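Researcher: I'm preparing a figure for a lab meeting and need a structural model of a single chain. I don't have an experimental structure, so a prediction will have to do for now. The sequence is pasted below. Please return the structure as C-alpha cells so I can convert it later.
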Amino acid sequence: MPKTIFEHIIDRHIPAHIVYEDEYTIAILDIKPKVLGHVLVIPKKVSRTILEMNPSDIGLYFEVVQKVAQAVQIGTRADGLNIVINVEAAGNQEVFHTHTHIIPRHQDHNISLDPGTHVAYSSPDQMNEYTTAIKASFVS
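Model: Understood. Here is the structure written out cell by cell.
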C-alpha cells in the first residue's frame, strides 16, 4: 500500500509547519484549514482510522491531542475549539491515516465544517507566525 501524505511528512519527505512532535506523534498546520491556526494531530504509528488504532496507544495519543488543543486555543486566542476525527470517506475522512483536527473557533466567526470549505494563509510568513504562536503556547 502506498504511503499517505502524513507518512511522507513524518519521514520528512514533504515539508510541514510542525507545531509539536514527540516519539509517537506529530502535529502540523493543516494546509487546507477551516480557519487559520487549524492543526492536525497525527500518530506516527500507521492506522487507517481511530477505530483501528491499538487501544493501548489511544490514551497517549489523546494526551497529546489535549496538550496541542490547549496550545492552539492559547496561541490563536480562540474562544473555543472543534476537535474532530473523521472516519472513512462517508465520515469525510480524506487522508486514510488516523488524525485529529483541532480547529480554533472565535465567538464572532461563523465557519463551515463542510468538506471542501477552507481558507488559505496569505503567505508562508503567516504560516510561520501561527506555527510560532502555537509552539510558544504549550502549557507545561
